[in-house]
Amino acid sequence: MNRKIFRHLAFVLALGLAVTSIDRNLAIAQGPPEFVAGEILVKFKPGTPGHVAADIHRQNGGAMRDLIPGIEVHVTQVPPGQENARIAAYRRNPNVEYAELNGLYYAIFTPNDPRVGDQWQYNNTGQTGGTPDADIDAFEAWDKTKGNTAVAIAILDTGIDQSHEDLKAKIAANVNFSSSSTVDDKYGHGTHVAGSAAAITNNSKGVAGTCPDCVLYNVKVLSDNGSGSWSGIANGIGWAADNGAKVINMSLGGSSGSKTVEDAVNYAWNKGVVIVAAAGNDGTSNPTYPAFYTNVIAVAATDHNDKKASFSNYGSWVDVAAPGVNILSTAPDHNNRIWVRGVKYGTISGTSMATPHVAGVAGLVWSLTGTGSCSTNSCVRSKIEDNADNISGTGTFWAKGRVNACKSVGGGCQ
Hints:
This protein is of the alpha/beta class. It has a domain at 138-408: CATH 3.40.50.200. 22% of the residues lie in helices and 20% in strands. The chain has helices at residues 50-59, 83-91, 138-142, 189-198, 230-242, 259-270, 351-367, 377-386, 405-408; strands at 35-44, 63-68, 73-77, 96-107, 152-157, 171-176, 215-220, 227-229, 247-250, 252-253, 274-278, 297-302, 320-323, 327-330, 345-348. The strands form 3 sheets. Strands 6-7-5-9-11-12-13 form a 7-stranded parallel β-sheet, with helices on both faces. Strands 1, 2, 3, 4, 8 and 10 form a 6-stranded antiparallel β-sheet that branches. It has a two-stranded antiparallel ribbon with strand order 14-15. Helix 4 runs parallel beside helix 7 (351-367), helix 5 runs parallel beside helix 6 and helix 7 (351-367) crosses helix 8. The longest helix has 17 residues, at 351-367. The chain is globular, with a radius of gyration of 20 Å. The model is unreliable at 1-31 and 111-117 (pLDDT under 50).
């Protein structure tokens, strides 16, 4: 997967807000914020003594506010407005491996009016006017496995509604690395993503999740306005890996890469986690991060006719596609940014909505026992990618095809 080896230098907000093309470490923010003011990320070379690192901070007018475990990156306070100057100063020191802005990533979705609809993505009979069988064959997959409560899918997002009837019993852990004061979802994005991944199923309520018996880790890394810092996201990735998550879902991103987030991704991958991220909603072939990194499954979005969604990013760097248009899932039952209070369920579109279907399939594959089961994340990834359906656009819009849950778990597929 050496397709993901270069740095893309423009930063365009994932929600489609236009900004000027800039170097990610040498820019002054314009329009919506692109980085956390007064903070930078500094990593010292292995073997650098603590007192030497402390001296370097003092020499450069920085103060360590936090340490990201596992990858040992210092979240460093500097005077607001002097971020770029301090980065340049740190980079001149031979003991510094890298220094960068503490950038922001955003939730990736294309909002639609909430409405009740069928979950065509699991079993498409043409009920929404689409092409029959343009789906991920989830019903057939569930005949083989519905998942396992020992398999946790970490949702790195805006939080999950703590009281939702289709989710509350599934939340096995809550942790907050965002600027919000609560683990609850006050934005509305994370709750929808969580439902697609693993909503309670067969309970005569609402919707079904792709991995019905998997549990959820609510790892809040995006604030109540839908944005989150690179340091918070890296902390969330590391926490999920250290606490036994088998899958990490990131329906978030931006068009600038972060060495800190990439280090966290590699840390999680090396601990055996499958990592899935949204390809972005700009409708271009430009990479979105963290989806672009080698150890991440990048997910594009398709519609109910198995066609690429008009908004979806695409290209050889995208691994697979999954349904992401007019996706029905859970919505917070309280005040939030996206949904009308009390709606509980609704449809929205985006590569954010496609991504948890792939995360759910990863959960199903992890849950297999006996013949055909996987003991490594590379095996799980291969089963997902190698068993994807070769729909139109495969080889151009995405590398492997549209995911097929049934084939991935070796079920009796029609």
